[in-house]
Structure formats: structure tokens, C-alpha cells
Amino acid sequence: MGMKFSICTVDRPLESTSPFPLRGSSYEECAAIAEMLGYDGIELQIQDPSKYDAKELRASLDRHGIRCSAVTTGLAYLFEGMSMVHPDEKIRLATVERLHRQLDLAKELDSQILIGYLRGRKSPGQTDQEFEDILTDSVARVLEYAEEIRTPMVMEQINRNDGDVFCSTDRTMRFLEKFNSDLLLYNGDTYHMITEDKDVPGAIRRSLKKLVLFHVSDEGRLLPDDSHFDFREAADVLKAEGYDKWVSIEAKPEPTSFEAARRGLQYLRSVFG
Amino acid sequence: MVEKLSFGEPFIESRYLVNEFGYTTPGHCNLINLDTEQAILVEGEYSLPPLCAMRTCGAKIDVPGKALLICNAGTLDLNDLQTLDCLRKIWKSNWELTHLEKHRGVPYYKSSRITIDNVTMNFCLVSEPDRPSGIHREHDGKIKELHVQLVGEGAVDLMRSEDPSSMYASFPLTAGCTHLPTWDENGEYPWHRFRSKSRCIFLGVEIR
Question: Least CB-CB distance to B112: which of A12, A25, A37?
């Protein structure tokens, strides 16, 4: 069995600088397009799971034979200021509680949650260790519930321009491994690898035991054009290692959302297929 | 104020501008002046009159009233069957919307409608050439009706009666264009219709 192809989607109007290529007025609409183009799944941007009927959402994806590759959580950081490392403990705990509800939704969708920006940024003057300690506490609280309901939580590497401390594949993997949980998993992302991982094949091999989601995104969050990053080299490693989980297009909706979705799948099929 | 709209997604990106000055249009856009009185100033020297449209490419605009920007619609290839199928899947046919017998088999597919302030809009795909809409002169209330051609070619025909052979004038529409007002000072219309000349997409606008 080969890799499964997915695309980041969003069901609300966001600026085209946001790297969610497939847009619609509902996730059913996104699923319908994804189905017609030939994707296996879609990644959902969910700010607040209480705004969704999980069973109806599941049914709307099932109607199109589309799976949910991840329930992604970053909109709560962008629009509500939530953060797993927020200096205010009340906000940290509210963020953990929000992630519990995200896990409930992901379980209904037979999927996993993805944590990227919601992990938050370092405060001024905070050391790397202080940042890690607070994040460790929040991750442990979320992971406890993830294990209770047996639903995976996935964390993403974020490059130094957009995130702190856990920027490279190796540093992020070392953080995840200390929890010793088979439900705390890893999302590699070529956009962040461009900046952080000099040895991309080595980084991918390093992450394989936890890698369940691989974001394909070029410099500037554009679709791959084979001039900034060697996607074929990355794909060759994944293929050689028998990786059979999600590979997802995360790019700006250019020139239009539909064209980005279509060209994205063509690229995935030609390079990762 | 600039508001991103999603009623055309994933096929067409649009932004609604109100009282916005010094805004630079992104990439290739259709700029539609939705105001009935105030012109839009383009690059500080060209005035786009009310209810008119033009194409812009990275132009600085001053919008004292209301405008719609439609981005990259020209990239939609209606001769590509996958694109056409996806459009027909997501946008609703006239038959799906009304279940009126006269709409059965009519190749008009409409995006969801959006109303902001006094403006109601939707996109419409006509998936076959030479397919006219119904001939009409009445609308739902007193409105100013515009058709803005975005992809392909069409026309707004003026007729003497409901008889299709009674056409006496036509506004040809190529991509990026709209037509002159077809209503009179009392808001009355002649018999008229939209007609596709090729597979096409237009924006329907109603201003109250």
C-alpha cells in the first residue's frame, strides 16, 4: 500500500497568505472537490470543535469517500490567542481543554489532532528550558486524555522564523520521545525542513517511527516547483522506507484554490506516488 | 475595510471593499465598482465610473464607495472537463434550485448567493455556448441588475417581447466587461436576457 494523499482545507474566508489551498463554504464542499480530484483525505482547520456536529461532519466526509487526515488546531492561536505555553495559567488550561475537545472530534472522524502554532511562542526573556518545561506540562495534560480515548496527537516541527526551540526534526523528535507514548506522533514539513534540516533524507529517516503526516510545501508556502527543495529526494526516502501514511499539500491557494488543489495532487502523484 | 468573501470558493477568490483608500490590487483582478454614485480612482489618475468594471494588475485604488475584486478568474479553463465537472458539482443548477420544469436541463449553475449592504451577488456558470436565460423584464423588487463577464463570452440581449426572435439590441460581453445600465429612470427594464456565446462564467449583481 502506498502513501495516502491529502490536502489542507478551510471552510471560512481567510486571506490567501494562509497555506490552506482548498477552500469552501463547508467541509462537505471541500470533500466533494477532493473526491473529484482524487485525493484520499482532507485536513480540517478547526478553531472550535463545539461549532461542529461531529457525527454530521463524519457523515459529510463519508458521503464522498474522503477521510480526515488531521484535525488541525492553529486557528485558535491565530484568532483567540490560545497557547499551550501562555504565561497566564488560565489560558494554558483553556487551551488544554480546547485540545481535549479537538481530540473528541478527531476520534469521531477516526483521525488525529495536529498541533503546530497552538503550542505557542517563547515569552521575552524566557529560556529554552523554561519554554520546554511549560510545554511539557501542557503536552502531558493533553496526552493523558489522548491515551484515555485512544486518539493520536501529532506535533509539527516549526522553523525558527515561525516557532521556537522545536524547529528541526531531531529536536522535535527528542521532545516527543521523552513522553514514551505511541499516541504522540510527528508531522514533518518540507517548508520547515528547508530552513532547519540540512540532511533531509537523514531527518526523514530519524522521524520515521513517529511520522504519520508529511506536509509538502515549498519556500514561501507555494506549491513545489522543484527549484528550492529536492522533493524527489524526500519522496525517494519515504518510498524506500515503505511509508504508507499521509502526505498532505499545505500551500497558498494560488493562482486559485481549485487550481492549487488540482496541481498539488498532480505533483504528489508524479513525485510521491 | 476589506472583507474576504467565500461564496465563489474554491474556484473564484473575491474581496469586498468599502471606503478603502490606497489599496493595491493583488495580481490580475477584475475590479467592479458597486457604488451607484462614486467613481473609483485607479493609480490616482483614472476614474472608474459607478457600476463599471475593468481589469487591474497590481494597481493602487481609492474606493470611496463599494467595490468587488475578483482575483485570477482567468485561470479557470472551462474547456477542461475536470474543472467543468467540479464546477457543476459544487454550484447548483437552475433545476436543483427551483425544480421548475422550465429549468430542467438548462445548463446554468449558480454559486451560493451573498448579500452585503444593499448588494446581492452570485457567480453563474453557463456550461454550453449559445444558451440564453429566460427572457424577463420583472425582478424581485426594484433593483439595478448587472452582469459582469469573468470567463468566456456572453451577451445581454434586449428584446421587444418574450419572443426570442424579437431581439433588437445586444451588449456583447467579453471577459472583464460589464454592460451599460439596461433600466430607465423609473427602474423599469425592457425585455432582456443573458446569452452565452461560449462556455462562460459571469457575476450576477443586484443592487437595491
Answer: A25
Task: Please tell us whether the domain made up of A4-271 is placed in CATH 3.90.226.10.
Answer: no
3-state helix, strand, coil in chain A (%, to 5): 45, 15, 40
Those residues with Cβ within 8 angstroms of residue B182's Cβ, 6 or more apart along the chain or in another chain? B145, B156, B158, B171, B189, B190, B192
For chain A, the residue count is 273
Domains of chain B: 2-73 (2.60.120.10), 77-207 (2.60.120.10)
Are the CB atoms for A169 and A196 separated by under 8 Å?
yes
Q: What is the pTM of this model?
A: 0.92
- Residue to mutate among A11, A14, A17, A25, with most B CBs inside 10 A, is A25
Q: What ipTM describes this predicted complex?
A: 0.88
Q: How far apart are CA A156 and CA B31, in angstroms?
A: 39
Q: How far is CA B52 from CA A43, B38, B71, B195, in A?
A: 40, 11, 17, 20
pLDDT, one tens digit per residue, over B23-33 is 999 889 999 99
Residues A172-224: pLDDT tens digits?
A: 999 999 999 999 999 999 999 999 999 999 999 999 999 999 999 999 999 99
Predicted pLDDT at B102: 84
